[in-house]
């Protein structure tokens, strides 16, 4: 994601997400510049799916993505680290109880 | 490169623990990702290397592109088209990776056409015959593969991921080149001479693609410590020679190096020393085609300016029209209610 301002009237930056095949999520594959959404889609097709890498493409203006920052990293993800009881291995079940 | 991201991470370890965290990530062989803190030297080195790599792909379209209209069959023309399109794609993957470090695409292009950033010396040699297309695929892309496969594990995530995509595609490039040469070698004496002539001209420049010898490569140590680079220039050069000699034998061409021979003791081929003075001349702008390559890239950029502007104007008009339509609709809905 570019952080410098667009002083030269450059095409904006888009992030590209591709679904590799049915049954899979869209995955971020990279970025590209395009004048508008339609051009971003056709550029994404030419750039990221020249060899059947995808069956569906999403593009979104990079500036529209909100992301967690590194500064927040530790406290931000802390709530998931201290709750061991969320995991199935937290519970002791006798070995002779079937199918659990 | 001054960016908001760069400026924040500047200031010599103002935020304690960040350098340690970075070092620990590198030591654990994990990837550095765009929003992580990183030393300014790491960021600068990566931007320079990725930009040079991207520029090489973009300039690399020219030597082979010249042969698209002169390809001897529709099959060869289609293959060459696809290959040159791939080179453009590789350039764009890499520019995209450079942008995650805070570099600006238009700025990188400007640096290239103003000669302020370099690209691989190999693309400053001319493609004199169609055999050159085959030899570029075989030797130049072969050398590129040697260089690039270890870069799939480079420490910067977006660069490593771009390299994975690129390496998948390079294999096609090398194989089409070798197949082209095999076809020519099965042809007439004149065709075989053409192949040998092309091999003679491209062999040494291909060896130079790995960069100066280790004792003369001042940036290598830092890049190795940061795990941007995984093997030294000389290691990769040796690997390329060992890989290529049997392919040359199979093809029936002679590599133009009288010192080339198998060394039983080392388990590697010994080979001669490239002309490093020539390498320095070509890399600093004085090769056979440097001026032409840059002039062509500049012309493409400048002649394309009106297209970029027109596309933006079109996008603005479409957006305005869509905005008006929405206003009309809500006005109608308001009237109906």
From TrEMBL, chain A:
Top-rank lineage group of the source organism: Bacteria
InterPro entries found in the cross-reference section: PaaB (IPR009359), PaaB_sf (IPR038693)
Cited NCBIfam families: PA_CoA_Oxy2
Protein name per UniProt: 1,2-phenylacetyl-CoA epoxidase subunit B
TrEMBL record, chain B:
Segments of this protein annotated with the region Disordered: 317-337
Domain of life: Bacteria
Pfam families listed in its UniProt record: PaaA_PaaC
Organism per entry: Streptomyces thermogriseus
SUPFAM superfamilies, sorted: Ferritin-like (SSF47240)
InterPro entries attached to this UniProt entry: Aromatic_CoA_ox/epox, Ferritin-like, Ferritin-like_SF, PaaA, PaaA_PaaC
Protein name: 1,2-phenylacetyl-CoA epoxidase subunit A
């Amino acid at each position: 994601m570019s952080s410098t301002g667009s002083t030269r009237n450059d095409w904006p930056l888009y992030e590209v997400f591709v679904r590799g095949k049915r049954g899979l999520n869209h995955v971020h594959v990279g970025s590209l510049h395009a004048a508008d959404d339609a051009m971003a889609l056709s550029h994404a097709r030419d750039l990221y799916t020249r060899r059947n890498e995808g069956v569906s493409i999403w593009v979104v203006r990079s500036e529209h993505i909100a992301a967690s920052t590194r500064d927040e990293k530790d406290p931000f993800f802390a709530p998931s680290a201290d709750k061991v009881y969320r995991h199935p291995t937290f519970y002791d079940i006798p070995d002779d109880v079937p199918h659990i | 490169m001054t960016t908001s991201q760069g400026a924040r991470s500047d200031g010599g370890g103002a935020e304690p623990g960040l350098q340690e965290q970075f070092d620990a990530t590198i030591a654990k062989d994990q990837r550095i990702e765009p929003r992580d803190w990183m030393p300014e030297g790491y960021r600068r080195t990566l931007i320079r290397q990725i930009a040079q790599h991207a520029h090489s792909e973009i300039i690399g379209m020219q030597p082979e592109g010249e042969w698209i209209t002169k390809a001897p069959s529709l099959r060869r023309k289609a293959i060459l088209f696809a290959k040159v399109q791939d080179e453009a794609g590789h350039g764009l993957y890499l520019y995209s990776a450079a942008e995650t470090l805070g570099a600006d695409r238009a700025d990188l292009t400007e640096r290239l056409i103003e000669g302020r950033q370099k690209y691989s010396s190999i693309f400053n040699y001319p493609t004199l015959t169609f055999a050159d297309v085959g030899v570029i695929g075989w030797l130049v892309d072969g050398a590129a593969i040697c260089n690039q496969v270890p870069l799939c594990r480079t420490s910067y995530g977006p660069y490593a991921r771009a390299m994975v995509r690129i390496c998948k595609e390079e294999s096609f490039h090398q194989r089409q080149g070798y197949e082209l040469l095999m076809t020519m070698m099965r042809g007439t004496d004149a065709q075989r001479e053409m192949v040998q002539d092309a091999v003679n001209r491209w062999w040494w420049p291909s060896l130079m693609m790995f960069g100066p010898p280790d004792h003369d490569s001042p940036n290598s140590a830092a890049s190795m410590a940061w795990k941007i680079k995984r093997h030294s220039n000389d290691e990769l050069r040796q690997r390329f020679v060992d890989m290529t000699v049997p392919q040359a034998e199979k093809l029936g061409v002679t590599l133009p190096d009288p010192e080339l021979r198998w060394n039983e003791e080392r388990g590697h081929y010994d080979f001669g020393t490239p002309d490093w003075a020539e390498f320095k001349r070509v890399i600093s702008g004085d090769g056979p085609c440097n001026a032409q390559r840059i002039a062509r890239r500049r012309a493409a950029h400048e002649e394309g300016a009106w297209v970029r502007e027109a596309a933006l104007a079109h996008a603005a008009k479409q957006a305005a029209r869509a905005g008006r339509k929405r206003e009309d609709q809500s006005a109608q809905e308001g009237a109906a209610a």
